[in-house]
Write a structure and sequence with these properties.
With 316 residues, the protein is mainly alpha-helical. It has helices at 2-6, 11-30, 37-49, 58-66, 70-83, 95-102, 107-120, 123-136, 142-158, 163-172, 179-195, 197-204, 207-219, 234-248, 252-268, 274-289, 294-308; strands spanning 227-228, 231-232.
Amino acid sequence: MIRAIRTCKTAAEERAVVRKECAAIRTAISENDQDYRHRNLAKLMFIHMLGYPTHFGQMECLKSIASAGFPEKRIGYLGLMLLLDERQEVLMLVTNSLKQDLNHMNQYIVGLALCALGNICSAEMARDLAPEVEKLLHNSNPNIRKKAALCSVRIIRKVPDLAENFMKPASSLLNEKHHGVLIAGIQLCTELCKASVEALDHIRKYTKDLVRVLKNMVTSGYSPEFDVGGITDPFLQIRVLRLLRILGQGDADSSDIMSDILAQVATNIESNKNAGNAILYECVQTIMAIEAIGGLRVLAINILGRFLSNRDNNIR
């Protein structure tokens, strides 16, 4: 099918090929053809990406998700994320399948369900499935914990009232050794702080843990796994700085705890590299947002001055 579409010379030819394929897929759907359901779904996704209507295949996604095997579920969830969005009423029918898959023994099926929920979760689904996702934040598998944390971010954005349920599990992720779980946990804590004042007060107690994470990155040597242009893990550093910024706003005690490490980041990071400049920029924003002492603010303003006098337009 892809070859036939690519060899089309005109838009009319393409429409004719797509029409013919859609007719064949409709016939297979009406005949309940299970052997080629996954292939038909893959074709529908390609047709959808070309901009043609594919609403008639939505129920096929739900049937694939309800089947027992991982390959069928994988194509079903992929179709669900592409062909549907949270405004579709059909989505309510998938809540039960998601609930079952979130409690599945197979970690990969649990991962699929978390990924789908994190992409298309509506407010109603968030309320129904939040207890399952919260439970998975304590799972022994780090990949599931990471995906559960990212899924929780979506749930809190949809229903901020659920923030208090995730406060304790989220703060426990700040002491994680696994890199993926830690960065997802910091993102979840940032979202919680934006959603709830109670969560903000709770996560302020963990300011020292965040400072320790940042200090380890600043003082540690070369780490090839997370190194970007000679800078140790700039993505995690930026996430930590953004969370510290929220925790330090209007709170003198938290600001005092983080002042030393912010000064260290501002003076030690190399400014001749893009990744270094990104960290410096976040560091300056954090210093200006918190209750920082005068000397630290002067340091931040000097860095801003360096940025403005730089020849590189991007940095300016």
